[in-house]
Structures are given as C-alpha cells and as structure tokens.
Amino acid sequence: MVSSRARAGSVDTAEVARFSRHAADWWNPKGAMAALHKFNPVRLGYIRDQAAAHFDRDPKKLDCLKGLRMLDIGCGAGLLSEPLARLGADMVGADPAEENIDAARAHAEEMDIAVDYRATTAEALAEAGERFDVVLAMEVVEHVVDVDDFIAICASMVKPGGLMIAATLNRTLKSFALAIVGAEYVLRWVPRGTHQWDKFVTPRELEGAIERNGLRVIAERGVVFNPFADRWQLASDMDVNYMLVATRDNEGERA
Predict the structure, then answer these.
(1) Rounded to an integer, what distance in angstroms lies between the CA atom of residue 228 and that of residue 148?
(2) Minimal CA–CA distance to 216: which of 177, 163, 139?
(3) Are 127 and 7 in contact (CB under 8 A)?
(4) Fewer CB atoms inside 10 Å of the end CB: C or N, the chain?
(5) pLDDT in tens, 71-123
(6) Residues in CB range of 61: below 8 A, 6 or more apart
C-alpha cells in the first residue's frame, strides 16, 4: 500500500517547471537535452537486456519486449518511451508537465509510434490501481521531494514477478566534481541548476528504500563516460551515475 504521506505528493513543482521550459527543444540532439540524447543508448540497452533476461526473451529480437506493460515515470518528451515501444513494449509514459506530454505526443504521432502518454503523476497512477510488468524511474529519483515516498509509490505499481529499474546519481565528492561542476559549469553539458547535489541518492539509500517496499535488488551497474569513444558505457564504477534493478517476487518464491 502507498502511505497517506506518499499520496500527498512527491512532485517537486520547481523541478517540473525547470524541465517543462525545455519541452519544445527536447528532441533536438544538440539542444538543452543533448546530454540525455547521448546517455539514452546505454540506458535503453540496459533496460532491454535486463527485461529480456528476467522475462526469458531474446534481446536480439526487434520485438523482444512485446506484451510487457511498462511505465516510464517522468518520461519528459519520450526519449526513452519511444524506443521501448519500438521494441514491442506496451508503453505508458507519465510526466506531470503538460508541455512535455504535448511534445511527446506530437513526436510519437509524427513517428507513428503508439505510446500512451499521460500528463499525470506516479501518485495518481498508483491511486488508480495501475500495475506494470516494468516500472522505470530513470533520472528522476534525484528530482523528487521525498525519495522514500516516491519509491513506495513506484514499488506499489510493480506486478508480482515484475521489475523496477532506476537510474540516478550517487552523492559523492566525485559526483559533485563531475556532475555539478564539470557537467553544468565547465563542459555545460546540461543547463546550470539541473541538479542539486544534496538530492543525489547513494546506492545504499536507494536499495534500502526499495527493499523496505517489498522489492528485492537483483542487479546494479555504474555508468561512465568514455571520452575516447565519445559515449556512455556500463562499468563497475558507481561513484557518479548508476542503475539498479529490483524485482517483486511471486508469492512463495522468497525464502
């Protein structure tokens, strides 16, 4: 069950306003979301591979996610929702910013891709009794008001046997140097003020919140930028960016 406190809302209105300002530019690979465009392949591949392994699918098949109902929380204009739908997923993309959802719907229509985009919150979806095979919280945990409440909401929507996959930033001195000073002020990969270091979440904190809400962490990986290949790649280093996978066991599976 989602607590009454969680129902009060995990949405940070200032964060919603900040990201909604970029709605019209979201699909521009050289615009304000350029860094997210570059990050997208590694997170898409990780989600595909983890879902395929968990649900016994062949990740090389173009429709490897067919039949899986997936939720992309904080979907923005659909950078992740669209390619997952192309892989066959029954996608629901949710974002509290109307401007982002308008941009997402317009792009999906232009590309002739079916995604159920909704201008709503995770709280509202959970209250409506929505359930999914896979719940995604990608680059959103560090932007919510209360991590524990947000994770409780996400976990409540994971079906038995389903997955939750999250990507976020670790709260370390290294992440302050690279994700704040480097990415926002030196390299200007993202607009200044995109992140607040004190809202970054350590793997232990995220794992604790997930496991307190009935899920079991089954995988975690760091993500690092390779300047020589000019791309992001999976790594054992979780000091800055990392992704985590958890499952809700079917009844009787846990010892």
Answers:
(1) 38
(2) 163
(3) yes
(4) C
(5) 999 999 999 999 999 999 999 999 999 999 999 999 999 999 999 999 999 99
(6) none
Query: Would you call 25 helix, strand, or coil by DSSP?
Result: helix
Q: Which residues fall within 8 angstroms of residue 59, CB to CB, at 6 or more apart?
A: 48, 49, 52, 53
CB of 213 closer than 8 Å to CB of 222: no
CB-CB contact of 173 with 164 (8 Å): no
Residue 18, exposed/middle/buried by CB under 10 A (0-12, 13-18, 19+)?
middle
Residue 30 parent element (H or E): none
End-to-end Cα distance, the chain: 22
Sheet order of strands, 132-138 included: 116-119, 90-95, 69-73, 132-138, 158-169, 241-247, 216-226, 231-235
Share of the chain above pLDDT 90, in %: 73
Q: Which of 73, 128, 114, 113 is nearest to 96 (CA)?
A: 73
Q: Which residue has the higher pLDDT, 158 or 34?
A: 158
For residue 43 the two structure tokens come to: 């997170």
